[in-house]
Design brief:
Elements (H helix, E strand, L loop, with lengths): L3 H18 L6 H18 L7 H6 L1
Helix pairs in contact: 1-2
């Protein structure tokens, strides 16, 4: 699996998209950090046998 820095660069647009879709306008930086923590946790829990990481990370 990729290192976390490369994964962060790849999924930053997705995190921002989710923040916008939830109509979050205050404390965006905090919610972005929460998104990065969730990405970190999903990297640790991901099992390649079940599919692509992008689908798993989005959910």
């Amino acid at each position: 699996m990729k290192d976390f820095l490369a994964l962060t660069e790849e999924f930053t647009p997705m995190i921002h998209h989710i923040i916008r879709s939830l109509s979050i306008y205050k404390n965006k930086e905090e919610y972005f950090q929460v998104g990065l923590i969730a990405l970190w946790e999903s990297l640790g829990n991901f099992n390649e046998e079940y599919g692509q990481f992008s689908n798993y990370a989005y959910t």
